[in-house]
Structure formats: C-alpha cells, structure tokens
Predict the structure.
Amino acid sequence: MELIPCIGCLDEIENIGVSMKKITEWVILSGKFVTLVPLEYNRHDEFVRAIEEGQLHQLWYTNIPEPANVKADIERRLALHEQGSMLPFTVIDNQTGVAVGMTTYMNIDAKTPRLEIGSTWYARSAQRTPINTEAKYLLLEYAFEQLGGVAVEFRTHFLNHQSRRAIERLGAKLDGILRSHLRAKDGSIRDTCVYSMLASEWPAIKTHLLWLMAKPR
C-alpha cells in the first residue's frame, strides 16, 4: 500500500480550534438573576461572608477555601488565568449586587476545543435558587455559541450527591467515574464523577434550561 503524504494536513490540524487567548479573554456574562464578572480582589469580604454564612469550608467533600484563605484562593485563580489555563468569574446576585460565589472555565483544551466548568461554589442562600441554573446557562451558551466548543465537562466528588443531582438536572450525561482519582482535603481518596455535554446536544439542553428558568417556582 502506497502512503501519499497530505501536504498541508498538519497545518490544517494546527488551525483547528480557537486560541487560548480568546477562551481566557475577560468577559461579562449577564442574565436576569445573575451576572458573571471577572474575578477581582475587591469582592474579598463578600466571599468571606458567603463562606462563613453556611460554614461551606467545613464540607469535607468539596474544596472551598477557609475564610482566612480566600485571598490566597483568589491569587491562585488569577495566577492560573495569567498562565492561560483558567478563566475565573465572580458570581453576582443581581437582586442584591453582592458576590455569592465563584466559578471558572478550567482544564481548557483550545485545539479541540473543550473545557470544564468547575471550581464552583455558592453561598448557602444562593443554593437551590435560579442563580446556579442561570450561571451554568450563561457559561454553556458562551462556550458553545461564542467559543465554538465541541464539549463542556463537569466533575464532582462521587459522594457529593447534591452537586451530582444539580449537574444531571442541567442535562449533562455521566461519562464515567475516575476511581481513586484525587486526595481530598481531609486526606481521603476520592472517586470523581465526570459528566459532559456535547455541542450537538446543546440546542435541546438550551431549550430545557430556558424552561427551567421560566417555570413558576
């Protein structure tokens, strides 16, 4: 069998996807209930209050910083943004104008392109409200419709049943479970559930999320 070289094929492959710079470009995403703005230090005290409100840092199956370590966590996320591997957001409750959490684009693969929505946490008062649904909607809409993503991933602790239900409610499908994947902050070894949505699934999921946000509560 004769192999015929494909002149320019490698160049074509190199040009597929989007630039990392575009994916990690600062952007503001606004909805009815929530606005996602670039992460900044000026919300530090609001983050601390949000964490203290529900003692979120004491949840063993999550990785929410201690109130005293919020500044260091902001620094970590901004450093990852500087390196081009994360786009961190502050989650603002439109009703109060106050920060109620953080979320990010992370594990970014610009060539494919695909990314993970993760490192997310919300104040207790913002949980089980339209805030999470709309925040995810805004992030998914931007990832699929503006960045041309082919897949968006979500990961969570196998035993974080609330997070798993929330992800499944969005319409994501379980890809699999990474056994003994990471060491949790309490020293235990965690299994990680990996979920994803595909670009081909986005139109139906978009309709579903718009319905969830519009239905009476």
